[in-house]
Write a structure and sequence with these properties.
The protein is of the alpha+beta class and 423 residues long. The protein has 16 helices and 16 strands. It has two domains: 13-168 and 228-318, Bira Bifunctional Protein, Domain 2 (BirA Bifunctional Protein, domain 2), CATH 3.30.930; 329-420, Anticodon-binding domain (Rossmann fold, 3-Layer(aba) Sandwich). The structure holds histidyl-adenosine monophosphate.
């Protein structure tokens, strides 16, 4: 038997309903925030991610799905959304056409060749936003508010918002030099990956999972001590806006994030519910004031975040959150025999197009089995179509809860259902 590829999963049943509910909630939330929907291709030129996400990141060095197409082009299944949205922003010249800021939201599958475990898949879905052309800390706070409000709307309680700042280019450079000085004498105690990071991007040493608990990590220089006045002021303002929005946060000075493009604010939201497991980062993001320029666009600032749907769904499960998903239908239609199927199907389609949730017996079940099926589907009404009904155009409809039966002219059926179904 052919099985699904490692690190992927199928969606169906109750999980599918819960997922659709969350997706609709996201869509509604983005409408309220007045963000524009973007959809970019699932594969892009490999160089976009090498230059965009960063040559030294684990994502690019170890995790991309790269392939050549039949025209010998180097392509990559996107490992994240930001680089693609930036590419689209530049390619579609939005810096010229739009009134700034451009506020984008996106949703779709991402691919990373990681070791699969709970909360870590090779194909996973991200919902994310990116704001272009706003250098005011109000936009950083707004971005952080989006996942926080989504979690709140869903009823998640056990979450923790961690924030930090990497400062502007100048502060980052100072900090980088301080880290080089600090780690240089201890290089042989670090893992092989960190030895490589030391040369290419020493900030990423702080993000290492292997060396994380070593003392040398705990006493490493903190970004906060290398900020210039401008960067300090920027971070203070982000915090003030978060306070104004009543968003509780913790400043975590070791938070540097795993992608290369960040400047100033970085943040992550963790799930704190017991038993959640090690992949407890529900979302992450931050500011990237040089990425648009690095990808050949005009100097334009950016800030955004992305959250993983799989981890969000797991958090909802662990916090035992019930979602208001619909598990019932309005009417179940039973044709008494093969002769009534066309009429019944026509009626069913008409009701569906008038907004009712309807199903029909496709399989010529016995009346007894059809009643059982109506109960299984939690149907509020049962409509039985026999030859009498077709001749007279008078439909027999039964309230499946009270068991009351009505005879209704076919033309009045929609009005009947409208007034007898709770809105
Ligand atoms: P990221 O931290 O790499 O950031 O991913 C964001 C979120 O995607 C994670 O917090 C996690 O919930 C989910 N995620 C990542 N990898 C996996 C995986 N293998 N399996 C399941 N879920 C996963 C970014 O991708 C940035 N583009 C975020 C951003 C947007 N920064 C600025 N704008």
């Amino acid at each position: 038997m052919i099985q699904k590829a490692k690190g992927t999963y199928d969606v169906y049943g109750e999980y599918g309903k819960r997922l659709l509910y969350v997706e609709e909630l996201i869509e509604g939330l983005m409408e309220k925030y007045n963000y524009e929907y973007f959809r970019t291709p699932i594969f892009e030129s490999s160089s976009l991610f090498h230059r965009g996400v960063g040559e030294t990141t684990d994502i690019v060095t170890k995790e991309t799905y790269d392939f050549k197409d039949r025209g010998n082009r180097d392509l990559t299944l996107r490992p994240e959304g930001t680089a693609s949205i930036v590419r689209s922003f530049i390619e579609n010249k939005m810096y010229g056409n739009h009134i700034m800021p451009v506020k984008a939201w996106y949703y779709g599958p991402m691919f990373r060749y990681e070791r699969p475990q709970s909360g870590r898949c090779r194909e996973f879905y991200q919902f994310g936003v990116e704001i272009f052309g706003c250098e005011d800390p109000i936009s950083d706070a707004e971005v952080i508010s989006i996942p926080v409000n989504l979690y709140k709307l869903l009823g998640l309680k056990e979450i923790k918002v961690n924030i930090n700042t990497l400062g502007d280019k100048e502060s980052r450079e100072l900090y980088r030099n301080a880290l080089i000085e600090y780690f240089k004498p201890h290089l042989d105690t670090l893992c092989d990956d960190c030895k490589e990071r030391f040369n290419k991007n020493p900030l990423r040493i702080l993000d290492c999972k292997i060396d994380a608990n070593k003392d040398i990590m705990k006493s490493a220089p903190k970004t906060i001590d290398y900020l210039n006045e401008k960067s300090k002021d920027y971070f203070e303002k982000v915090k003030k806006y978060l306070d104004a929005l009543d968003i509780k946060y913790t400043v975590n000075t070791n938070l540097v994030r795993g992608l290369d493009y960040y400047t100033h604010t970085v943040f992550e939201v963790e799930a704190k519910v017991e038993g959640f497991g090690s992949q407890n980062v529900l979302c992450g993001g931050g500011r990237y004031d040089n990425l648009v320029e690095n990808l050949d666009g005009p100097k334009t600032s950016g800030v955004g975040f992305a959250l993983g749907l799989e981890r969000l769904m797991t958090a909802l499960e662990y916090e035992k959150i019930e979602l208001p998903i619909i598990n019932e239908i309005d009417a179940y239609i039973i044709p008494m025999s093969e002769n009534e199927k066309e009429y019944a199907m026509n009626l069913c389609m008409n009701l569906r197009l008038n907004g009712f949730i309807c199903d029909i017996d496709y399989n010529n079940r016995s009346l007894k089995n059809n009643f059982k099926n109506a109960d299984r589907l939690n149907s509020k009404f049962i409509i039985i179509i026999g030859d009498e009904e077709i001749k007279s155009n008078i439909i027999t409809i039964k309230n499946n809860k009270t068991k009351e039966e009505y005879k209704i002219n076919k033309d009045e059926l929609i009005d009947f259902l409208d007034s007898n179904l709770p809105s």
